[in-house]
Sequence to fold (670 residues):
Amino acid sequence: MNNTSWTQLWLDYEKKRGKVSLDKDNIAVLIDGFTENNRIIKSIKNELLKAFKGLYGKEILFAEKESSIDESTYRIAITKSENMASEGYLIDAEDKGIVINASDENGALYGVFHVIRELMRGTKLREIKAECKPSNPLRMMNHWDNMDGSIERGYSGRSFFFENDNFYINDRTRDYARMMASTGINGIVINNVNVKDAATDLITDRYFFRVAELSELFADYGIKLYLSLNFASPIELGGLKVCDPLDEEVIKWWDEKFAEVYKNVPLLGGFLVKADSEGRPGPFTYGRNQADGANMLGKAIAPYGGIIIWRCFVYNCTQDWRDRKTDRARAGYDYFKGLDGEFLDNVILQIKNGPMDFQIREPVSPLIGGLTKTNQMLEVQIAQEYTGHQIDLCYLMPMFKEVLDFKTYCSKDKDTVADVVSGRTFGNKLAGMAAVINTGDDTNWTGNYLAAANLYGFGRLAYNTELSSEEIAREWVQMTFNLIEDETDKLVSMLLNSRGIYEKYTSPLGIGWMVTPHDHYGPSVDGYEYSRWGTYHRADHLGIGVDRTDKGTDYAHQYYPENAESYNDPDKCPEELLLFFHHIAYDRKLGDGRTLIQYIYDSHFEGEAEAEELYETWKGMEAHVEPEVFASVCHRFEMQIANAKEWRDQVNSYFYRKSGIPDEKGREIF
Ligand code: GCU
Fold:
């Protein structure tokens, strides 16, 4: 077994050679109704060639017509059929083999990847049947790559797009596009939302040529390229004095800029914008609101069919947290709810899953479904910024599923987050999901080999939000490894349990943070990022938690009444979010009769012990995993255990000292 294969992740066909059988000797592919020299159809052909060569050592034949196919040959027909959903496909058996029906090239591409996936998992070709259509129209990855090659919140090396203000476009880029398409991703933002320095020039002739080249490569796999935009470009590039969205000169500047951009990069999907947040410029500087900013850009880009994705991660990071009515969690709703219905049709708001910032546990953002007349999409993070830096194992699909399944009560039916962000609830055409990506230039793409489960998983989930976390994990394990069945089950359950374990040894019951400021790995219970004022958790000698009820910041009432009522009441609030919504006394009894303080002690001891169990289970797989992969993952587990111990000890001793209440079980608290 060689290790270079890890460049292909779950598409490593060679690795499966001899492991998956084929009944007939020959394979013929018949393309019917699609234009043969279409760029995506060409990619389909290449992928099929690569897959059958890798899996079976076989060349496939591209048949011109029916008659050229004999008895010893299976046929894979890829047939254009108009009545299929956009980007969907139907796979069925027929006399001579199977047929993949799709109405567009993306659907055909996804159907082909479905067949390849099933073959890799050991399904017989003639038994592959499926009917699939995407849950979400937009399925996007957001890179936080900077043009100097660094990655904001990157844990897998440096950027594979940029270095020293130059682009890389090479075989690795193509492999990346193939892998993303194989999961159903159809949009990629290549640069960091914090657009500075050379990245501002991405919309100038300094980079047009390279951006266009990359957009073409992406298009071969049905993916649109997007850029993050510097709202202050009229000042920084245009020499204007302001970037006020209502200023005539600014409007004219953007009109001309987008004309120039689309002349040079016609395949561009549009732009992602972070404004008025964490030091970024935006409409607030000029007394304008977020809709003024987004619509100004939306109007300018409309003639070219582009879209503006406007982030709702807008808050004042210099707030004085000592004021008990101040609450960062309120910010998104406070800024955007009043603007509902004011955004143009080609503008979509991108909303982080929680109101704060990608913590291991947060309630769902009340903006999702709170907005009823505005295009909206969900933003999650698979880069493990607050969830273990791709050192600790943390498979995030269970968290994303909880978010998607959350009932917002925004409508009589179809009111879950999955319904809202897919556009089903309010009939939006622009809708979907985006993830801050976890890749870099490490050979294995994600630093920790096991973190690739999140890379694979997000795409699959965004394409089909009905899939379970377990189904996705199983697919990934089966495609990626050659484990025996029992070990496959074990690795799947390791993945499924990992988020709960991480939560147990870090911050309890939805309180969040307690993490080292800025770096965001390891504990710092009182750590607070932006000022010397206070902490996030508001612990004192009697209790802990933020009062977000009507007696506190009243954040709880940003939800529809059904949710507001339960969040507002400590007896009804879901326990896992108790400290997010309430300041609770250490001696208060929780659901199972334990006191809060005892729960904190227990969960930290348990979490650390369970992290050790994860490692033990992994060790049992040594015989069937490549030695380098095995050793590298072992090393990560050792670091994870050290981290879990550190969290356990710091958090437990902090609360022991604050509360003076000893552990009932008499365990040593350092
Ligand atoms: C977090 C993260 C930043 C990032 C920001 C964002 O605050 O720590 O690095 O820029 O989110 O989502 O824009």
In short: The domain at 504-546+583-659 is CATH 3.90.1330.10 (Alpha-d-glucuronidase, C-terminal Domain). The radius of gyration is 26 Å.
